[in-house]
């Protein structure tokens, strides 16, 4: 299972985040884009080394790169009120890798950050590349390609759901379940808007296939996420972590994030 989780994290570091940064319609993001491959390479290498000083140093290099991305996020100019929903989603995306990097440094050093088991920290690294970065960025993107109340709601519910799930790590499974519900509603809305754009706004069949496939995968993968959160909170039977990594994790990483980022790039969308 952990080999698979590491592979998914590598996909997030080396493919999903740099692809997402190319969707930012802001020249000020250029420095973060140029720096990212170096930090991402260090972070990816750290995953495959034994825990210790070398792995921690490499993970710290990744954390520095993620901190540069955070600095860019904090330096973005204020947006007009009509863009607040989109900006909330974009800022969530830009901060997500820093949360993942903090968990990575702790896990690679063997430190139980906030008392969490090292396995939980590993899963946090994965989640904040996909739910924390890819999902939030694509949700913000919807406000540009399909503006309206539904897109604004999705742009707000995705970061809100991610935050509630994060709070649930420190409280109870019921809070995690509430966050999963909010996040699922937001992601289903994102999927529906993506599907609509694939059917009516895609410039060619390949782009339509990428966006449509991303939307369908997202709808299915969120059912798995919801079933797992429900089972954790209630004790009902639910998929194991290994099964979730092999299904929900792979689907989100490859089907939703990679196909979605490539599809939106081909569609010429920017946020």
Automatic annotation (TrEMBL):
Pfam families: YndJ. InterPro entries: YndJ-like. It comes from the Bacteria. This is YndJ-like protein. It comes from Couchioplanes caeruleus subsp. caeruleus. Keywords: Membrane, Transmembrane, Transmembrane helix. The chain crosses the membrane at residues 6-24, 55-74, 86-106, 118-141, 153-171, 177-196, 208-230, 242-264.
């Amino acid at each position: 299972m952990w080999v698979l989780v590491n592979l998914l994290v590598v996909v997030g570091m080396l493919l999903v985040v740099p692809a997402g940064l190319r969707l930012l319609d802001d020249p000020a993001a250029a420095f973060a884009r140029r720096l990212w491959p170096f930090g991402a390479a260090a972070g990816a290498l750290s995953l495959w080394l034994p825990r210790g000083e070398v792995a921690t140093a490499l993970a710290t290099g990744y954390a520095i790169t993620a901190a540069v991305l955070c600095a860019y996020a904090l330096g973005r100019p204020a947006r007009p009120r009509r863009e607040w929903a989109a900006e909330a989603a974009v800022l969530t995306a830009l901060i997500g890798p820093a949360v993942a990097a903090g968990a990575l440094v702790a896990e690679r050093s063997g430190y139980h950050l906030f008392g969490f088991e090292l396995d939980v920290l590993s899963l946090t690294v994965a989640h904040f590349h996909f739910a924390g970065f890819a999902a939030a960025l694509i949700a913000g993107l919807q406000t540009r390609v399909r503006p309206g109340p539904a897109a604004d709601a999705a742009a707000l519910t995705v970061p809100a759901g991610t935050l509630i799930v994060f709070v649930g790590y420190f409280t109870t499974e019921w809070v995690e379940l509430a966050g999963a519900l909010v996040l699922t509603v937001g992601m289903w809305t994102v999927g529906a808007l993506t599907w609509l754009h694939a059917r009516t706004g895609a410039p060619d069949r390949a782009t339509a296939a990428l966006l449509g496939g991303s939307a369908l995968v997202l709808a299915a993968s969120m059912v798995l996420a919801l079933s797992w959160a429900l089972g954790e909170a209630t004790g009902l039977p639910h998929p194991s972590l290994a099964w979730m990594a092999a299904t929900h994790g792979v689907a989100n990483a490859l089907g939703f994030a990679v196909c979605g980022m490539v599809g939106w790039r081909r569609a010429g969308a920017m946020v």
